[in-house]
Amino acid sequence: MKFLDLAKVYVRSGAGGTGCLSFRREKFIEYGGPDGGDGGKGGDVWVEAVDGLNTLIDFRYRQHFFAKNGQGGMGRQRTGKNGSDILLRVPAGTEILEEDGRTVLVDLARIGQRFLLAKGGNGGFGNLRFKSAVNQAPRRFNMGQQGVERTVWLRLKLIADVGLLGLPNAGKSTLLSATSNARPKIAEYPFTTLHPNLGVVTVDGLEFVLADIPGLIEGAHEGRGLGDRFLGHIERCSALLHLVDGTATEPLEDCLALIRELDAYGGGLARKPRVTALNKIDALDHARIAGLIAELETVIDGPVMGLSGVSGQGVEEVMRALAAEIGECRSSAGREAEEHRAWHP
Predict the structure, then answer these.
(1) CA distances (Å), 310 to each of 16, 159, 160, 178, in order?
(2) CA of 280: how far to CAs of 56, 199, 277, in Å?
């Protein structure tokens, strides 16, 4: 299935049915009178986050969605049939934005969350509604309300616990394949990963989702390389894993370049808990590893771990460090939820 995280759709709710102008005329019935029924309501357009989807590919080849119009009213006080609603099914984590692409209407972060995208028009009144003592034969009726037309953007932000960051060829896909059942594309050239990949990691009974996004280069926030459009997929992550290629020419500068890109992007990414790891230590000697780790710890003012996605060295320790960050985040979220549910007078 092709990955698609951005789609533009055009929706229109149904128009209300027209009210009926009718009078009762029956043989051998002395008194008639108005009996025009109301028009039916137009269909609504809903969007719902459902389980089992992780891409917006369904909206790649179909961008127009129209709800049914309400049926017109009929004589004998019969109300027209309501127009059927239409439901857009999207993955959990999808944001609905206005046509400008910046104003967020709703964030469907949970499965089952629904949002009314366009309300159907009300049906018009038939002439029966206007009957009164002084107007016993009204010839007035209403047209149904028009439906709502709007263009919106769907933007998917994957829901993962850990975001995997690094420059191209830092070994992110190799680590993802070594720690989960995911099988991303791995090759010896830059930008092998062209779309995010997800993998489920289990450490000491704790399961968490690891998201591998395409590599960043300096200037990505200005559109260089693949740009920073994929950073939105890790905005919801509890922690970040920053991989630094130990075999690169300038590992320290590479580390600082990615941190600068996180600062330039914003969205709180630079403030998220981050585990920094020196990758590909299987290709370095012990003195080189110790020197690089010491220099990186000085630069980032924090601990740096060593690992190798190929040999598996240090991988378990790094995963346990991430699991500790995730456990702390989940505990904090649980405490906040309990405080929110607490009774207040």
Answers:
(1) 63, 27, 23, 8
(2) 35, 20, 10
Tell how far CA 297 is from the center of its chain: 35
Q: CA-CA distance, 259 to 280, in Å (whole number)?
A: 20
> Tens digits of per-residue pLDDT, 47-69?
999 988 888 989 989 999 999 99
Type of residue numbered 225? G
C-beta atoms surrounding 186 within 10 Å = 14
Residues in CB range of 313: below 8 A, 6 or more apart:
281, 282, 306, 307
Q: What is the value of pTM for the model shown?
A: 0.78
- Find residue 47's DSSP bridge partners: 88, 115
Residue 1 pLDDT more than 70?
A: no
Query: Three-state SS for 211?
Result: strand
- Distance separating alpha carbons of residues 163 and 179, to the nearest angstrom: 14
Find the DSSP H helices in 239-300.
Answer: 251-265, 286-300
Write the DSSP string, 55-123.
Answer: --GGGTS--EEEPPPPPPPBTTTBPPPPPPPEEEEEETTEEEE-TTSS-EEEEE-STT-EEEEEPPPPP
Sheet containing strand 162-165, strands side by side = 197-203, 206-212, 162-165, 239-245, 274-279, 304-306
Cα(223)–Cα(245) distance, rounded to whole angstroms? Answer: 23
> Does residue 161 contact residue 234 with C-beta atoms inside 8 Å?
no
Write down the residue that tokens 């190799």 correspond to. 174
Which of 64, 48, 87, 232 lies closest to 152, judged by CA?
A: 64
